[in-house]
Structure formats: C-alpha cells, structure tokens
Amino acid sequence: MPDDFVENYRAYKQKRVIKQAAREEAKKYSKxxxxxxKGSSDEGIEELLIFHTHSIEKGLSHPHFRPNFGKNALTKLxxxxxxxxxxxxxxxxxxxxxxxxxxxxxxxxHQNMQIETPNFDSLFGNINLASASMMAGAKKxxxxxxxxxDFKKVETSRYTQREFADxxxxxxxxxxxxxxxxxxxxxxxxxxxxxxxxxxxxxxxxLISIQSGFKGYGLPPSLSIVTVxxxxxxxxxxxxxxxxxxxxxxxxxxxxxxxxxxxSCILNLMLPTNELDKLRNILKIDDAQVMIAMVAVGQPKQQxxxxxxxxxxxxxxxxxxx
Length: 322
Hints:
Blueprint: H1 3-32, H2 42-60, H3 71-86, H4 94-112, H5 118-124, E1 138-142, H6 151-157, H7 171-181, E2 193-198, H8 201-211, E3 222-229, H9 241-259, E4 263-268, H10 273-283, E5 289-298, E6 303-307
Helix pairs in contact: 2-3, 2-4, 3-5, 7-9, 8-10
C-alpha cells in the first residue's frame, strides 16, 4: 500500500477523532456552563455570585468613582441571591458571604460620600448588611519592592493593577521577568509559548477597544499578548494542551512581573472569532497561534485602590481520595 495513502488515511482518521471529541466537549460545556442570568446548577449559582461580586469590586476600586454604578451587575446579583435563597443553599458559603460583603462595601462607600442609593435600596433594602464581613470591596494598596523575598511574599503581595505610574516601562525589568518565566513547565518541555509585545499607543488603544474589559482606565504603557503555537502538539488527544501550557506560562509570567516590581493586569481574550481575527490582523499573528490572554504591564503607582478579591478557603477545593 502506498505510503502517501497510509499517511492520508491516518490523518483522515485523526480528523474524525478531533471532530467527535469537539462535539463531546461542546455537549459537556453546554450541560454545565452558565448560559443564562441564573445558574445551571448549585455550583453555577455560586460562581455567578462570585462573578458579579467582582464586577462590583472593580467599580469600587476605580480611580474615577461613579456614584450608583453597576445597575446591571446589581440586578443580576439580586437575581442570583434570590435563586440561592429559594434553593436553600448554605449562607455560610464563601460565595454568599463574599456577595453580602460587597453589598455592604457598596452601601458604605456611598454613605461616606453622603450619596443616596435609590436603585440599590430598592434591590437590597430588606437585607441586613450591618453584620456582613469586610472581606470584599476595595482597599488602599502600597507597592513595595520584592527584592530578596520568598515566594510566599510575592504570591500574597500580587494584586491585579489597572492603573500605572506615569512614564515608560522599565524594559530591563520586563525582560528579566520574561526570562524567569521561561522556567514554566510544559508538556514534554516543548515550551510552545510566544509573547507579542507592544508599546505603540495607537495599537494599544485598538487592542484595548476590541478586548473591551479595560474601560474607564488610562492606556497602559505596554501590552503583552501571550500565545501558544498549535504546531507544538501531536495528534488529536493534545487538543486542550495549548490552553494548559498557555495558562501555566501566563500565571508564571505574571508572578515574575510582580517579583521584579512591575504592575500588571491580565486581560482575557474570550472573544468571538471575528474579534480575535481583528487582533490577529493588528499584531500580524497567524492562525497557528492560540491566543491565550493579554497582559497590561507598567511601572507601579505608589498607592492605588485594588479589588480585595477574597479567596475561598483551600479546604473547600481539596478532596483526599483513600
């Protein structure tokens, strides 16, 4: 049998496997993902509470505070809390306490500024917020150099920062962080990552506009786009590996930026294909590259407001199998 025929037939079979696997993954995603304003499961409701809570936190940490902001997020949070109560879920859970806490922070922020909140009161006036914790909201944050400190200090001192000091990025520090990030583990040490970097203000403005998750903030001094090369992977069963390796590199890169004293904000690229194609055209990135995320990077401000982004207790995500 001719070698070409064998290779073509093998490729044909692998394509069929990929298509079938994609259909199966799509079916699972459709079953478990939250595709509407209310949760698709108990876990879905809790994740939606966390999602909308953080939307409000970002507003509370914004440098140009907008009174009575977040009507859409507040309305959705109200619907999720009602669903949570109707199902009799645990009010001591992280997601519920986090949501109630951000409502308290929202109300107190307005009270301290002597601003009335008619929309908020109509939605949550019957909820006792006085006993809510202060785990959620915004807080003042002072950057400090992390030279010579251990990883725990770097980990606990990292915050997403959407504001940067005036002036250009220290490229020497940036390259130091990038060099350290190359220690990231990858499948069979393939190291399939690539970082597209720009300080071109016109391009940054275009990219930020398409991504649409950085509204209300000034342009960052630089943008890094992390991608993974599909060509590094073999056969149909590694179809998810670009996102695994890309995510590992992305997080490690971000921690390395923190370790050298730079401020950063990861911006997701969960966009329709036509919007991703616009990014590709601006950056001259071909289809072989899986676009993982953008990272805004700059010099840190001495002090700024950041979202508290409270974390679940590690015990809630740990299961020991005997």
